[in-house]
Amino acid sequence: QVQLVESGGGLVQPGGSLKLSCEASGFSLNAFQVGWFRQAPGKEREGVSCISASGSRTFFAESVKGRFTISRDNAKNTVYLQMSNLEPEDTAVYYCATVLLVTTTQCVGPKSWGKGTLVTVSS
User: Fold this and answer.
1) What pLDDT, in 10s, does the model give residues 54-96?
2) Measured between alpha carbons, how far is 34 from 42 in angstroms, rounded to an integer?
3) I need a labelling partner for 111 at 20 to 30 A (CA). Which of 30, 35, 41, 95 fits?
4) How many helical (H) and strand (E) elements, i.e. helices and strands, does the chain have?
């Protein structure tokens, strides 16, 4: 009964903001490192941002640095992705997953994928 559920996606104009949530059920998320990934039409899934179990280490893709922040509330079994200054290129289905390794330069080993939430950035 391990499940991750993403929410918070929607339609937003360029320059706008959106906050995504990844909530776990069936297990304690506080023991896991978590990552946000996205897949745009015709493109491979890419790592966007990841956070260690304690929150002390984070990873951001170069394309989102300075615009996105990741945080977690272990008491709520939830990891958040705050997206600001959104660009059309950010349009994608966003997924969260537990991951094996988080450093400032890489995020590897995703498991336990959620079903995703669609973010559309368009005017």
Assistant:
1) 999 999 999 999 999 999 998 999 999 999 999 999 999 999 9
2) 25
3) 41
4) 0, 12
- Output Rg (C-alpha) for the chain, integer angstroms: 13
Contact predicate 41/89, CB 8 Å: no
Tokens of 73: 């509330």
Phi then psi for residue 4, to 5 deg, are: -120, 135
Nearest in space to 29 (alpha carbons), one of 68, 3, 60: 3
Is residue 1 over pLDDT 70? no
Tokens representing residue 15 in the block: 């320059």
71 CB-near residues (< 8 Å, 6+ apart): 51, 55, 79, 80, 82
CB 47 within 8 A of CB 38: no
Can you tell me whether residue 73 is helix, strand or coil? strand
pLDDT confidence of residue 81: 98
